[in-house]
Amino acid sequence: MQPLESIEPLGHAIAMLLPGIAARADEIEQTRHLPADIAQSMAQAGAFNILRPKSLQGLELTPMEMVAVLHAIARAEASAGWCAMIGSTTALNAAYLAHDVAKEIYADPHSITGGVFAPMGRADDMGDHYVVSGRWQWGSGSANCDWLSGGAMIFKDGELQRFDNGAPYHRMMIFPADQAELLDTWHVMGMKGTGSGDFTVKQIIVPKERSVSLIADKPVEPGALYQFPVFGLLALGVASVALGNAAGALDEIEALAKAKKPQGGQRSLAERGVVQTELMRAQAKLGGAEAYLRECVEACWHGATTRGELSPEERALLRLAATYATETSAEVAKTAFTIGGGSAVYMTSNLQRRFRDAHVATQHIATASSVYELVGRVALGLPTDLAML
């Protein structure tokens, strides 16, 4: 993984925060959302600004630099990494908005945005604006956001509008966070500190220019970063957090193995051959997944910088590598948990939290097992709807 310190000036600022974030892991989980002071310190460091356009005081990092930043934060604490990932990827909306509109939302480099792509809302077309109502699940980091966004089906004169292919037409509606009601629904097994509860709005007005279609619209920002598909970058973000969490699990088990002697035993776990074997297998698995992810991202970056676009095959490889990395990370976290033995099951153990967080990450739609079927269709030359690839 690329050293965090090589990404300056962001890397040093983030690195300074990580010990403090790791030390508050239990508090983050018990609070069930990222504490406001941690969110603000991350915002001041630039953690939510990594994909924002340079024209809006953003950092506009490369995809591999994004991976390194999110990996490092998640290695310290997975929920913090997840919130950084959501804040960063939702800021991609800025690349699709007219600059004067985007400036209203994203000009402050320390602002935090969030949202949910899934079109769980309804937007009635009223000419120059939409009237929007809806309720969205998985609103990660919403408690600390200045702006939120939510996907909404578009209706005009009571009739559902459709894309040219007949699919329901929907757009992301962007609105001030104080127009939404946050609902306490995030009672889950893992990623507890992400605060990914539901949020709802009722009959709010959203100017048309403050909405985007990540399927039909084209980015107005010229950078190569914005030639990457948004859903590919989202999947890459999920994988980055999963990989960082798995690396954190290996950190935990290595420290435990050196210190722990099984009950009735004279040797530490580290001195047992089976522990050495399983730990090295886990490290090799994780390193292989990281290497494959890097290879695919670099190939896609070459396409974005030389051709100004990614081919369907490149987009499919990006999703494949991200999904495999997320899945492998969960296997590695499970191995670390298993090696930890009975002590790992206690809530005082970081290994059980790493295990739970890893398996929640695998449920995200961007890296779920269904992605294998989607990219398999592309690889086998079958007709495939590429809109969500």
TrEMBL record:
It holds the Pfam family Acyl-CoA_dh_N. It comes from the Bacteria. Residues 236-367 form the Acyl-CoA dehydrogenase C-terminal domain. GO terms for cellular component: cytoplasm. Coiled coil: none annotated. GO terms for molecular function: acyl-CoA dehydrogenase activity; flavin adenine dinucleotide binding; hydrolase activity. The keyword Oxidoreductase applies. Keywords: Hydrolase, Oxidoreductase. Residues 21-92 form the Acyl-CoA dehydrogenase/oxidase N-terminal domain. One of its GO terms (biological process) is fatty acid beta-oxidation using acyl-CoA dehydrogenase. The keyword Hydrolase applies. Belongs to the HpaH/HsaA monooxygenase family. This is Hydrolase. It comes from Sphingomonas ursincola.
